Protein: Class I SAM-dependent methyltransferase
Amino acid sequence: MKNVPERFTWAADLVAPLPADHVLEIGCGAGLLIGLLATRLTTGELIALDKSGPMLQKAAQRNAAYITAGKVTLVTSEFANYTTAHPFDRIVSFNVNFFWKGQQAELKVLRQLIKPKGKIFAFFDTPFNNTIPQLAAQITQHLQQAGFGVLETVISQAPPRGSFCMIIQPAKKTLT
Structure:
């Protein structure tokens, strides 16, 4: 895709949805990542969620072919209010603040939307690489309190510096 910042290409490569995956993008904005993910789907579907109608209009223009083909559905909603009967294989977000704010209502919704073995890819941009450990530690604490585990934290080598991804899964429940 033309005019897409390199960090979105890096993100799509890291998420690497399988052809039949059911994918949710939280806070899709103008839809820069949508096409990069949708091209990898054959029988799968991408739901792109954003609370801003004007941003979704831009996303619709940018990704009209995928919407027409039935690979992408755009939804206007606050994440905390979003529900579906079909949990997701992969959930993706870029700079979504409920991760670092530890908003338990949103993290509870996230838990309901991901399949037990599904993966969540939470991407963040920071001004400097040296802030990543502190932010990742803060996010990890919030996630653990909400019943998630961090599988891996990946730091991008693509410009701008300071982009990283936390790959997250629901924590396995232990018997007591």
